[in-house]
Design a protein that fits this description.
Length: about 260
């Protein structure tokens, strides 16, 4: 029989970084602050490229010029279509002897607007989107959103868009439930809903009408949605060729006190 102390010695103990190197904690915290700043400023490919370019310039890199002779140790970078950035430090050996290559990409969960995203039906504007980054469809209604991107006008001029990152910006919500949370927090901060900040939800849940102020929202035709799904399901059950058409039903914009 082994003693208690001998048995404890046999147990695996997972040593944390805090235990192994307590003096490195502050250095790790300092590094994370810079990393967090990068994440705040690089939520799209274009923003990541612009932020990376500033970091490279501060680190002594310069723009690559095709045909220019580069001495060992020279730091250069180039940008491809505003969405990709490549940086290199010129070495002393031939590429045939090998080289170090570090590759990274952003993975920002987001709803991407399609190239021509806006369409109108029944007096309501819609956006064609697809989602990216591993977030499930049902999770989007629980996340406050900001609008980032580039818009090209008909005359070719370009407009940079970033709405929702500043405290005074509108907040994009998909569901009424999230809109309720936005209104509650804004009210705590002394922000007047409907004048200083407008909030519009989606789904017209019962709480949106009872809340003060009432929440402007888009009501879904729940009954018609269910009826259409069952009708199409029954039709497809008796057909060899399935009808998988995309059906858009009429929604209703209900204007209340939170947004006019």
């Amino acid at each position: 029989m082994k003693t208690t102390e001998e048995l404890k010695a046999l147990l695996y103990k997972n040593e944390t970084v805090a235990d192994a190197a307590p003096d490195a904690l502050q250095a790790a915290q300092d590094f994370c602050e810079g990393y967090k700043t990068f994440l705040d400023n690089a939520k799209t490919e274009r923003e990541a490229v612009r932020t990376s370019e500033k970091l490279l310039l501060n680190a002594g890199y310069k723009k690559f010029v095709p045909g220019e002779k580069l001495a060992p140790g020279t730091k250069v970078y180039t940008i491809n279509r505003e969405k990709c950035i490549l940086a290199a430090t010129i070495g002393t050996k031939s590429l045939e002897e090998g080289f170090h290559l570090n590759i990274a990409h952003i993975d920002s969960p987001r709803l991407d607007l399609r190239p021509v995203p806006v369409f109108e039906k029944s007096g309501i504007g819609y956006l064609r989107t697809h989602y990216y980054g591993g977030v499930r469809k049902y999770q989007w209604p629980t996340i406050p959103l900001a609008l980032h991107g580039v818009i090209y006008r008909a005359d070719g001029t370009r407009v940079e868009v970033c709405i929702g990152e500043k405290d005074e910006d509108p907040v994009f919500c998909i569901s009424d439930l999230l809109a309720v949370g936005v209104i509650k927090q804004a009210s705590r901060d002394g922000i007047a809903i409907g004048s200083q900040l407008e909030v519009c939800g989606f789904d017209n849940i019962s709480l949106s009408e009872m809340y003060i102020p009432g929440i402007t929202t888009v009501a879904q035709p729940g009954y018609e949605m269910g009826k259409t799904v069952i009708t199409k399901l029954l039709e497809n059950m008796h057909k060899t060729e399935k009808n998988n058409e995309h059906i858009i039903l009429d929604h209703e914009l209900i204007i209340r006190g939170s947004a006019k």
